[in-house]
Amino acid sequence: MKKATDAIHHAAAEGYTTSAANYVRGRPGYPPEIAGWLRDGLGLHEGRTVVDLGAGTGKFTHDLIESGATVIAVEPVAEMLETLSAGNPRALALTGTATSIPLPDASVDAVVCAQSFHWFATAEALAEIQRVLKPGGKLGLVWNMRDARVDWVAKLDAIVNRVEGDTPRYYTGAWRNVFPYPGFGPLDEQHFSHGHTGAPEDVIVTRVRSTSFIAALPADERAKIDGEVYALIAAEPSLNGKDVVTVPYETAAFFTVKE
């Protein structure tokens, strides 16, 4: 029988199967401004239904629940979905993919892809998202990115990006190539700055380990990446010897309306 993970990129299928715990521990949350964006941009409130598509471990699911809307989380990786369900019991968790959403036609008010759309930025996925959206429904796209305008962050990104292979990434901008798409209006774009504060082991080392294509590497290659990250921390005065550090992030939030 074909598994849901058969339809997703190999880096996601291999990496996220083993890195759910690191994802929870190492990934940042979202800035306070996202609550207003969900309310005013996507129109989420009590009585609305939203799909968290490619929901992972539920990092964004909690924000959606807080909007008051009914939340349906769709995720193909069983290990991620299990973690999501445990942490967000108020969400309905379903196995599915962006090209096979297990919901009826015109059944939801919004679909949100947080940290996920780059994995499935295709016409086929957009057609499936249109199918489940009601007329006038909205597609939201959200990403957290480290702020590489900070010198040490740029160095960290260089360590990570060197081993990305053919993995789709937000920063390349390739996901934009599917827009404009018939039946969706123009993309509205907003950006919010925030920080991820915690122990360097969590917010830097574990965050890197949670990256799909790094989690999928052989053990010796993962150890080499660890060594480079630890060396960077030791060489950076703002990080070395600190119990608590803040990694600067920028959140990019987009939405488009089904016409």
UniProtKB/TrEMBL annotation:
Name of the molecule in the record: Class I SAM-dependent methyltransferase
Keyword Ion transport assigned: no
Superkingdom as given in the UniProt entry: Bacteria
Sequence similarity: Belongs to the methyltransferase superfamily.
Coiled-coil positions: none
Alphabetical list of CDD domains matching this protein: AdoMet_MTases
SUPFAM superfamilies for this protein: S-adenosyl-L-methionine-dependent methyltransferases
PANTHER family assigned: METHYLTRANSF_11 DOMAIN-CONTAINING PROTEIN, METHYLTRANSFERASE TYPE 11 DOMAIN-CONTAINING PROTEIN
Protein species of origin: Trinickia violacea
Record carries keyword GTP-binding: no
Domain Methyltransferase type: 51-139
Lineage: Bacteria, Pseudomonadati, Pseudomonadota, Betaproteobacteria, Burkholderiales
Pfam families: Methyltransf_11
